[in-house]
Amino acid sequence: MAKRVKIGLIGLGNIGVTHLNYLTNLDNVELVGVCDVVKERADRFASDHQTTAYYHYRDLFEQSGLEAVIVAVPHYGHTPISIEAFQRGLHVLSEKPLAVHVNDAKRTIAAYEEAKKRNPNIVFGIMFQERTLPFYKKIKDLLDSGELGRLTRATWINTAWFRSQAYYDSGDWRATWAGEGGGILTNQCPHNLDMYQWLFGLPARISGHAHIGKYHNIEVEDEVTAYFEHDNGMIGHFIVTTAESPGTNRMEIVGENGKLVYESGKLVFYRNRVSTLQFLKESKQGFANVESWYTEIPVDTSAPTGHKVVAEKFVNAILTGSQDLIAHGTEGLNGLTLGNGIMLSSFTNSMISLPLDADAYEQKLKELIATSKSVKSTTQQLSVDMEESFTV
């Protein structure tokens, strides 16, 4: 029989069940246990998937014989569980975000680096499944190939994250500083923040404008506008909210060789005949535009995508020692830096420079937790289809 990786799953909420639904269909995986602090939930899903229920992650670590763990608990739990897993020599696939704040992310990465000294082949992945989406992969390919030349602007409006008050009321941990650690930047947008840094790298300076509970009865941000300055001269705009319907997912990337626009399942390249930067210096015509050609970029949408693809890469990396992952766990620090930076800029009403003052942000977060006055009435009944929450 082919080698199978013994995996445990921690967290059986909405996203945990998403993982559970594909894990039992992977031929090279043995699900040796599921864990949740709600005993009835753990028992039910363990029975449904012919595995063992655990109610504390340490019991799963000590009794199941697992080799790897998928961490799908609320955000603050990512750090202590991942650190202890590395200390025990376990491979880790963490849900997003890597942590709530940069200091915790660095602690997780330090634990991983220490574990690598004992086992150089230990695998650390993060669930950035949107990197598997065909249009984003094509955009990455075009940018890496230099098709646009020098980049001058990137504008991403992604307001396709609509959430009702009922969604926020579905758990007393949701949309609180103590329970979740933030709002749209911490919950919905880690994928977008990762995608921005994956495509363009981190900016040098951030100006963030976050509105706290502007449209919902919550104590965290539900609308954000951010402005980025990169050392190469490129500027970026990032606009997100959970209160816009119909929402928009439009990305414009401008370079000297033209403009790339992604929206509504179409990727268009307005290809310049000559460099804009060259033309503006050399043209003798005051009002002339660069000649450009409309080109719809073909994108293969038939390849598999999503959580299963990320998990398959993770398992294969364990079996082969290849370290070939969709996203390495250490990469989670970059998008988190963007998110923390936006919020710190907004809190201080100032433009901030990277590297981020991680201690200042952690201290601000502690103050928000300590002074929280949020009292939520939890709604028990909520219709949830997690597939509806994954943007394209």
Give the helix/strand layout.
Blueprint: E1 5-10, H1 14-23, E2 29-35, H2 39-48, E3 53-54, H3 57-63, E4 68-71, H4 78-87, E5 91-94, H5 102-118, E6 124-126, H6 134-144, E7 151-158, H7 165-168, H8 190-200, E8 205-212, E9 221-229, E10 235-241, E11 249-255, E12 258-263, E13 266-272, H9 276-282, E14 292-296, H10 307-320, H11 332-348, E15 352-353, H12 358-370
Parallel strand pairs: 1-2, 1-4, 2-3, 4-5, 5-6, 7-10
Antiparallel strand pairs: 7-11, 8-9, 8-15, 9-10, 11-12, 12-13, 13-14
Helix pairs in contact: 4-5, 8-11, 11-12
What labels describe this entry?
Dihydrodipicolinate Reductase, domain 2; single chain; 2 domains; Rossmann fold; alpha/beta; 9-stranded mixed β-sheet
Notes on the protein architecture:
InterPro entries: Gfo/Idh/MocA-like_OxRdtase_N (IPR000683), Gfo/Idh/MocA_Oxidoreductase (IPR052515), GFO_IDH_MocA-like_dom (IPR055170), NAD(P)-bd_dom_sf (IPR036291). Helix 8 (about 190-200) crosses helix 11 (about 330-350). This protein has two domains: about 5-130 and about 305-330, NAD(P)-binding Rossmann-like Domain (Rossmann fold), CATH 3.40.50; about 135-300 and about 335-390, Dihydrodipicolinate Reductase, domain 2. The chain contains twelve helices and 15 strands. With about 400 residues, the protein is an alpha/beta fold. The strands form two sheets. Strands 14-13-12-11-7-10-9-8-15 form a nine-stranded mixed sheet. Helix 2 links the parallel strand 2 (about 30-35) and strand 3 (about 55). It has helices at about 15-25, 40-50, 55-65, 80-85, 100-120, 135-145, 165-170, 190-200, 275-280, 305-320, 330-350, 360-370; strands spanning about 5-10, 30-35, 55, 70, 90-95, 125, 150-160, 205-210, 220-230, 235-240, 250-255, 260-265, 265-270, 290-295, 350-355.
